Amino acid sequence: MSTQPLKQSFAWWCIRAQVDDPAAFLRQARQIGYEGVELLPRELWDSAREAGLLIATEVVGKIERGLNRQAHHAELEEEIGRKLELAAAYGIPNLIVFSGNRAGLSDAAGIAATVEGLQRLAPAAEAKGVTLILELLNSKIDHLDYQCDHTAWGVQVVEQVNSPQVKLLYDIYHMQVMEGDVIRTLRQAAPHIGHIHTAGNPGRHDLDADQELNYPAIMRAIQGIGYGGYIGQEFRPKGDPLEALRLAYRLCDV
Hints:
alpha/beta
């Protein structure tokens, strides 16, 4: 088992409505111990860097309109090109990509198109040293009809693309909703996971005693697989966002 501490980040969209002074909040989050921030508006990137926070992820495309259709590949390739330049300039290690919705598409056809799209994008990501992370989302509650909604679907894609810069974004909350068995799945899919998100289930709120996931045990398992990426806190706080992030940081600091 690795004894290295897990790096933690937090998603800005979850707390932005509760933050009056973004620059001050970023500094306070760094003081807690957070090393990264995710999904941050472009105008705050310099403030994050001044606070000592890495911008851990940025998004490409839209959840509903992703890589599972060839008709989307050209526009995504154009956007990826722009985002890769920004990622290289700001040291952003990961760009999040999406499968898109099924809309009647079979799993086999969706996998084939997503693989084709990522193989088209992978060389540019490899050249910049940036990882494209395909996000696993639940299609039961939050993102109805999303296709990459099971770990096995995503693993098939990553294995077929066969690029060191194409991985999965394993979202613990979303996969608890869809399939459970989180620790076993993390261990089995470990070579294909490039980033991890958290949230309490049900509700997608704090990692507290009112939700069902055993986060200390999950974090120990993640540390045990030698995971070197970020643990991104992506929950909607019930109360004060800074205090919620402080408690989540401590809970996951194994």
